[in-house]
Structures are given as C-alpha cells and as structure tokens.
C-alpha cells in the first residue's frame, strides 16, 4: 500500500507538502498541487483516517441505531410507515454535511441498543441518533458530554434532544377538515390507549370539536387495537358495531392508522354499508401504498417521517458544532392532510334515513 512518502517521492516534493495538499491547511502552488494529486491518483494512495482523527479530534462519523432494517411491517402492528423513512431523512442531511453515516440495526431487540451505543463510541463517532419505530418513551444509557445524542420518534425523561411527530396537531387538522365537510358526529377508532400517539391525537380530536362548538361525546371514541394481535379483527368489528348501534351513529369514522382504515372498508362492505356514500372514512399516516390503492382513495394525514429524519440530523449537527439550542423542548414536526374521496358531505345521510334517524 502506498504511503505519503511514496507520493512525495513520485511528485518530487516533501511529505509535508503532500500533507498540505491533503489537508488544505496551507497554500500550495497550482503546479505543485497538480503534481501531488496526479501522484496520488497514479499510486492509488488512501490517506490515513486514523491519523487525521488524531490531529483534528474529528472522525467525520455519525452513528445511527434503528430497527428499521430487520423489522418487517405486519398489518396488526400499531404503527404507520416504516421508520426506514426517518433513516433516509437522516442520511440525506448527513451526506450533505460531508460526514459519513454508520447504521446499526437492533434486530428488533432493545437490549442490543446499549452495546451498539458503546461500539459507536469506541469508533469515536461525533454524535448519535436513535430512531424508534413509533412515538414512545425510551430509557437509554447516559452518554459522554462530547458525544451528543438525538432521539427520533421517541423521547426520555431527562431531556435528551428529541424530534417527534406532532400527533396532536395532525389529528386536530384532520378533524377540522372533516367538520368543514359538514360532519358533526365523528367516530374515532383509536390505537391502544397507552400509546403516546393515542393520548395526543385524542386531545387534538377534542380540540377540533371544541373549536367548532361541538360537544365531545365519549361514546364516539373507542379503542380498536388489542394487546393480542389475534384479537384485533374482533375488537375492530365490535367497535364499529357499537358505533353504528348508537341512537345517532357517526357519519364518519376516523381510524388510528391507514392499515386500520383498510380493515374498516372491508368490515363496512361486509355489512352492506357503502363507502363513502353511507359512511365516510379517514385514516392516519398517509401510507401511500394503502391510501391511494383503496377505493375510494383514503383521506388521511401524513406522518412526516422523512422530515423528522432531516430535523434530527440538523439538530445533531448543530450540537456537534457547539451551538446552544434555543429550546430544550422536543422538536415537533407535522405532516399535511391528503384529502381524497373517502370523505363526503354528510356521507351517512342515506343510511340514517333508512334507519329512521336524522343527524344532529
């Protein structure tokens, strides 16, 4: 393998001059630079990154830990688009910074996170990003002060910099848009109650109703995911049955995610209820492979995974450069509404009339 001394000999200069060309830390004449660069190309010389790290105390490496590579999405899992999109957002931003992103996958095992963090620290990464597969609280090992950590799609109780989806705002915007379409009886089929997203989205749902002067009716909000995946179809069927059996049933069903909405389409059609003519449906995630292939296409709100990845990378890079954060609060990222044809004006009017009922 060629050394810096081989390059210097071939170019007819000193090793120090070669170092100046490589590091750009001192002026070098154009002809000399050209001769050195040609010698490097001819010899296939590769500079020692270890030596450069020792001089600059910068490795140029960023570590990222995720489960996105090993985990395959299952229809019963309470999550939306794969967290791989967060990783892609991080990668695009880190690449633009000139640094190198090193990715490690947990294999779906949280107990592997601590050893992976330690491995990255041993490789002297300048900073770390941990990506969770859904909005949740995590507990990670303490990190050295000179190795900043940013959390993506998760948070902890000690104030580690975090980037989160704005679930409250997303559900609020969606319900406001549904109300604008003329609906007042809005059913909400939620993800598990213990999920952070469920609590925040329910708050957004209530806020939208209150802003429109519509009283909150707790009978319209039902969980539709069970702890046991095998029970989900039964629970969802029962939740829909309970909503349709109300004295004044909803005219639209908001679903915890697009996967659930897809199941709701099937259940309603099994019961002979047309979508959207007799029941409107809305989802959450903007899982395009679902939302745009359903008939009718699904109205939904996007989970901004790619944007979250970009923001997480930007926040980490600013910490690496020693910038003081303007706030210690999590960075909240919201996504747009994708309004399609699954929600119509008072879509259950015909259904209610057939049952001898009227909307409020």
Descriptive overview:
The chain has 360 residues and is α/β, with parallel strands linked by helices. The protein has three domains: 4-47, 434 Repressor (Amino-terminal Domain) (Orthogonal Bundle); 61-165 and 304-334, Rossmann fold, CATH 3.40.50; 167-302 and 339-354, Response regulator (Rossmann fold), CATH 3.40.50. It has helices spanning 4-11, 15-23, 30-43, 49-56, 84-97, 113-122, 167-180, 196-211, 232-244, 258-270, 288-291, 305-320, 349-354; strands at residues 61-66, 100-105, 127-137, 149-155, 162-165, 186-190, 221-223, 252-255, 280-282, 300-301, 331-333, 337-338. The strands form three sheets. It has a six-stranded parallel β-sheet with strand order 2-1-3-4-5-11, sandwiched between helices. It has a four-stranded parallel β-sheet with strand order 7-6-8-9, sandwiched between helices. A two-stranded antiparallel sheet has the order 10-12. It starts with a helix and ends in a 6-residue tail after the last helix.
CATH topology of the largest domain: Rossmann fold
Total individual domains: 3
Give the overall form.
elongated
Largest sheet, in brief, is:
6 strands, parallel
Known CATH architecture of the largest domain = 3-Layer(aba) Sandwich
Structural class: alpha/beta
Helix amount, in percent?
A: 40-55%
Strand content range: 15-25%
Tally of extended strands? 12
Helix tally equals 13
Radius of gyration from the CA trace?
Answer: 27 Å
Oligomeric state of the chains present here = single chain
Mean pLDDT score, rounded?
87
CATH superfamily of the largest domain: Response regulator
Secondary-structure element string = HHHHEHEHEEEHEHEHEHEHEHEEH
């Amino acid at each position: 393998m060629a050394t810096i001394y081989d390059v210097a000999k071939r170019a007819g200069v000193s090793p120090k001059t070669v170092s100046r060309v490589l590091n750009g830390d001192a002026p070098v004449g154009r002809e000399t630079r050209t001769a050195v660069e040609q010698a490097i190309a001819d010899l296939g010389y590769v500079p020692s990154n270890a030596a450069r790290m020792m001089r600059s105390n910068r490795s140029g490496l960023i570590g990222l830990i995720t489960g996105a590579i090993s985990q395959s999405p299952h229809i019963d899992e309470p999550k939306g688009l794969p967290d791989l999109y967060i990783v892609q957002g991080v990668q695009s931003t880190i690449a633009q910074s000139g640094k190198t992103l090193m990715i490690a996958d947990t294999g779906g095992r949280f107990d592997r996170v601590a050893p992976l963090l330690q491995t990255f620290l041993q490789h002297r990464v300048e900073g770390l990003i941990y990506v969770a597969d859904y909005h949740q609280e995590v507990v990670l090992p303490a990190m050295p002060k000179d190795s900043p950590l940013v959390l993506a799609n998760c948070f902890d109780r000690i104030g580690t910099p975090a980037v989160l989806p704005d679930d409250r705002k997303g559900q609020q915007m969606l319900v406001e848009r549904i109300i604008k379409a003329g609906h007042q009886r809005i059913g909400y089929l939620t993800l598990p109650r213990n999920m952070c997203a469920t609590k925040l989205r329910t708050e957004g749902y209530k806020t939208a109703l209150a802003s429109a002067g519509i009283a909150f009716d707790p009978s319209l909000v039902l969980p539709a995911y069970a702890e046991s995946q095998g029970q989900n179809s039964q629970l969802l069927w029962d939740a829909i049955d309970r909503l349709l059996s109300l004295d004044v049933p909803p005219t639209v069903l908001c679903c915890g995610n697009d996967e659930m909405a897809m199941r709701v389409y099937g259940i309603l059609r099994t019961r002979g209820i047309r979508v959207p003519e007799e029941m409107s449906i809305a989802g959450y995630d903007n899982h395009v492979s679902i939302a745009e292939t359903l008939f009718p296409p699904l109205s939904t709100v996007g989970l901004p995974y790619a944007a979250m990845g970009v923001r997480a990378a930007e926040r980490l890079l600013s910490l690496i450069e020693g910038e003081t954060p303007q706030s210690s609060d999590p960075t909240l990222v919201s996504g747009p509404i994708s309004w399609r044809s699954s929600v119509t004006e008072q879509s259950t009017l015909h259904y209610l009339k057939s049952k001898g009922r009227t909307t409020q």
